[in-house]
Specification:
Chain lengths: 120, 339
């Protein structure tokens, strides 16, 4: 028998991977650098793997959803990312898709639960 | 600090040249941010660094995240080197074969139509061969990297910061011009040995016109060695490709180089100690083209030089081989000290 926690962890990782883009985009109406984004999300109760986040920021920038700027005034130079108009558009539509997805997934799960309760 | 530098280097060296400085700067500042936060909450710098690097995980995996990992016959990391080698090989083939054709034409201007047809056909065949061998070499290097990663994303072993190899010492770096020159000469020799053994010799000019070539070698005997020469040249080109890719001396590269040098020497030993390989009519040929007259003092002198040279060349090659081996071994020694 496989360890149940291990299996669940694996699936959770996949679920998180799916939501990470949404989470990141949601926080970038204000400029953030990589580590501040980790802290902000952590503060809101979402743990995020920096090894996934940092490359993701670059990828989103390459896909032209984000604008970036180096700030050299701080104690150390930091690269700040910010949503551009295309990014905002993408984020809003993605949010709508997300809500649709949640409600349909929820509907499915609830229906199955009702059925289960019914037969028991 | 050194650990952070090594980590960043381990990540960025796998990324396209153009993106390196930017990612290097960003990653460095991010890691410092993460370390700083842990230090502020009471950790010592060393264990904080260790912790952060472990959290970021295997640099190969992080680099793959930056790249967006995929599988390739020739991956983007190798593609640049592949194109460099491909260009060198194809240009060298074209230039050396055209030179051979030009000399053939000058020697025998009456048969230009046949020669030109032969030239085009040979050029076509050799260029396809060159293309195929370069591609195969790189596909092998690629496959070896995917199948047997040292500590790539494919391995099951836990990655630790202590595995990081040091940033290379300048004395073990390889300048790109070295393998490039080597490939050019390898191809030149490959073409000459294959198509024009008879052109290794004394060029006979008459009134400024190239009349003939008095060859050094007995072509028929020489030809028997050609498959082995091909094999050695293929080995040398593979070695040069590895040099272009790794850009520094590594243990296996030094091993491969010394293996090649010794194999070349053994071949030279077998070839040049066989008296049949030399053109037995060399001095007579020179007389025939009236470069010498029989019985004269110069004739005796040339005959003696010819005899000494054919017997002595293997010693010269032995000396060069020895110097090469010592030179390369010194590199290994310096590498050990630097590491």
């Amino acid at each position: 028998m496989k360890d149940i926690n291990e299996v669940i962890n694996g699936f959770m990782q996949e679920l998180r991977r799916g939501t990470i883009i949404l989470l990141v985009l949601s926080q970038l109406r204000e400029p953030q650098y990589g580590y501040s984004l980790v802290s902000v999300l952590e503060g809101k109760g979402v743990a995020i793997d920096p090894g996934t986040l940092y490359p993701l920021l670059r990828r989103l920038e390459k896909q032209e959803l984000l604008e970036s700027k180096w700030d050299t005034d701080d104690t150390r130079p930091r690269k700040y990312y910010l949503l551009n108009s295309f990014g905002k558009e993408v984020y809003e539509q993605l949010c709508a898709e997300w809500k649709k997805m949640i409600s349909s997934v929820e509907a499915v799960i609830e229906r199955e639960e009702d059925k289960g309760n019914g037969t028991n | 600090m050194e650990q952070i530098k090594r980590y960043v280097y381990a990540v960025t060296r796998q990324l396209p040249q153009k993106q390196r400085p930017e990612i290097e700067r960003e990653l460095h500042s991010l890691i410092e941010d993460m370390v700083e936060e842990r230090v502020l909450s009471g950790k010592d710098a060393e264990s904080a660094t260790e912790e952060v690097l472990l959290e970021l995980g295997n640099p190969n995996a992080l680099a793959a995240n930056y790249r967006g990992k995929q599988r390739f016959l020739i991956s983007p990391e190798l593609f640049y080197s592949y194109m460099v080698v491909m260009k060198i090989v194809l240009i060298s083939i074209f230039v050396s074969m055209t030179a051979v054709f030009a000399i053939e034409f000058i020697l025998n201007p009456m048969e230009i139509a046949v020669q030109f047809a032969n030239y085009l056909l040979s050029l076509f065949m050799v260029i396809i061969q060159g293309f195929a061998w370069v591609t195969i070499s790189f596909a092998i290097i690629e496959y070896a990297g995917v199948k047997f990663p040292k500590n790539g994303p494919g391995t099951k072993k836990e990655w630790k910061p202590s595995q990081l190899s040091p940033v290379p010492n300048p004395s073990t770096l390889i300048k790109p011009s070295e393998p490039i020159t080597s490939i050019i000469f390898s191809i030149l020799f490959l073409v000459l040995f294959t198509f024009s053994t008879h052109m290794f010799g004394i060029f006979v000019f008459q009134e400024g016109q190239l009349l003939n070539v008095v060859p050094f070698f007995n072509e028929e005997v020489f030809r028997r060695f050609i498959p082995i020469i091909w094999l050695l040249i293929a080995l040398s080109i593979l070695r040069d490709c590895l040099k272009i890719i790794t850009k520094k001396w590594t243990k296996s590269l030094i091993g491969l180089h010394i293996l090649f040098v010794i194999a070349s020497f053994l071949l030279a030993l077998i070839m040049f100690t066989n008296p049949m390989i030399w053109n037995s009519n060399f001095t007579n040929d020179l007389v025939e083209f009236s470069l010498l007259s029989e019985g004269s003092e110069t004739f005796d002198l040339v005959a003696t030089i010819w005899e000494r040279a054919t017997q002595g060349i293997i010693y010269v090659i032995a000396l060069i081989t020895l110097i090469d081996i010592i030179h390369t071994s010194l590199k290994a020694y310096r590498m050990k000290n630097a590491g």
